[in-house]
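USER:
I would value a second opinion on how I read folds in token form. Give me a protein, with the fold worked out from its sequence. Write it directly below this note and I will take it from there.

ASSISTANT:
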Amino acid sequence: MSQGKKTRQIKLIACAEGMTLNGFPVEREHIEQMAQDYDPKFYCGRVNLDHIKSLFPDSQFRSYSLISAVNTVELTEGELAGKLGLEVTIDIDDLKDEYIVNLNKSGQKIFSSIEYFPSFPQTKRAYLTGVALTDYPAAIGSRPIELSAVSRGLPDSGNYFTASLETQCHLLSEQHTEHQEEKEAGKKFLSTVKQWLGLERNHNSEETTNLKTAIELTAQQCGTLLTEQAAHKQELTKLANDFSELKKKLELTDGSGESRPPVTGGSVKLADY
């Protein structure tokens, strides 16, 4: 990759009106409001991975590309013909997003999942706040609502949506770089969803390693406490058994109440001399 800055725009159908697989409705009015109100200068949405937003700038789950525009499109094909779709424009920076672009070639993170507030605090209207890239469908019912695609495997480049009324990313247009070789590389990358922004999780990252270490230490402490608890339980059981045996012995001891008669001495009187 050359040192010059290269930014390309990707347009994708990220959502359609209707019920999602897990029962959350995407209202036509919400799609219209997201398209009408979206302004990156007011609140700029970002691309993230699996709806995870890390605080560490070097984390693989940091924020990536910017969402530059949102529009509506009337769908004309398939079961969703006549439905209103949400078209999202994303700015891909070849330098800043190089890592996820390269990992995308492995076919990971190929599904889109939008994040939006149905009632944004400042406007009380629906507003798009982000787009997550996922390996598998994951619709979460918290707000902002997260809606994801349901198609598994590599999607067909000719399909915008799946029959379940949820969405899969589909690249509609692109802006190419000046050299033909770079243009062809861009087409190859942008021609299908499987060539769009994936990330392979690296479980050896410092963040993940620290988390793993903390979990292991917690597990060790829990194991130690359980061992000590078991030992104390055995000691208490032994004490209870010993007490029970002692009690039985005491109960078997002669308890008739008869005692020796008192000793009063003989009946002979002694003479005084």
